[in-house]
Amino acid sequence: xxxxxxxxxxxxxxxxxxxxxxxxxxxxxxxxxxxxxxxxxxxxxxxxxxxxxxxxxxxxxxxxxxxxxxxxxxxxxxxxxxxxxxxxxxxxxxxxxxxxxxxxxxxxxxxxxxxxxxxxxxxxxxxxxxxxxxxxxxxxxxxxxxxxxxxxxxxxxxxxxxxxxxxxxxxxxxxxxxxxxxxxxxxxxxxxxxxxxxxxxxxxxxxxxxxxxxxxxxxxxxxxxxxxxxxxxxxxxxxxxxxxxxxxxxxxxxxxxxxxxxxxxxxxxxxxxxxxxxxxxxxxxxxxxxxxxxxxxxxxxxxxxxxxxxxxxxxxxxxxxxxxxxxxxxxxxxxxxxxxxxxxxxxxxxxxxxxxxxxxxxxxxxxxxxxxxxxxxxxxxxxxxxxxxxxxxxxxxxxxxxxxxxxx
Length: 408
Fold this sequence. Notes:
The chain has helices at 2-20, 23-26, 44-63, 83-95, 106-111, 113-119, 146-160, 176-179, 182-190, 210-218, 230-242, 267-273, 294-305, 310-313, 316-337, 344-352, 403-406, and strands at residues 30-37, 71-78, 100-103, 123-125, 141-143, 167-172, 196-202, 223-227, 257-260, 281-284, 377-379, 383-388, 391-394. It is an alpha/beta fold and 408 residues long.
């Protein structure tokens, strides 16, 4: 009998202890996020390392208890660059109570714009299309838009070109993603940027660009700005090299100097194009691991911690995915610090407040992330890189294109 009473007393004491124990000590909260992207299919050469960067950073947040006992659960699904699959993924994520959404493609971001408005959910896409922000309250670009990138490259051409008005061709992806900056570049020329856009080429399935390259040269083109992904650019560069058409110095007469926006370059391009990538000019707001920095060290350490191979570890698209996860984590941290409930509305508020002395420096970018009610483009600064001896090296310092404001 005495033993039974003792057991009963211990049980009651344990029950009281459990009732009085703070809720957060029992189990942390789980904040759900969703990511739909092309892990396979078209543009997967960008989407695959991007997904790894997102996955690894959120695992790091949880493993290091960055949010205390709370955790982030980010559901990552392959949509194969198919808008219909993306929409189904998003609707399922919403039904599971996500508080923040990470989208991928330009086409699906545009297609889901009304859905984002209805759900009032903050969205960070992998697409930097300036048109994502038109008539949108909830989409935020992680870095400077494709338009700003292309204009930045065009401004560099105009500034560096010797003799007359430079003639330029645009080599673009046959989609909204590729076409995005074309109109804005044309507007910049009309606004006074002294450059002639001779031709806009939408690349197709033809793996031989020889005829196109010869045609551009016959029209006096000296510069080709690309807005697409690495694989078609690598093919074009190899074709140009085999024909002896690649400029060895910037703007070399009778040759072609190649330049590209974010998704065209990085170490992934060098791996695909080999020596043909030499002297390719590229701009993005992300750092590269070829040059020492705290951000490069953090990126490589993260990839090593989660057993990623060298290709993924050194990809700027791994950094890209890592960075959007950093931003999402940061707004959750800021809301928690203020005692706010972690929900869509409060995370949206924290994004809008990310400016001034509350700007966020993730280390993976060449400038701070800033958002406000009137500015939904994150990192304004761009860095120009060029391939030298098989590695992308920065040239000059981070800059903000002038004509992006002039065409607003």
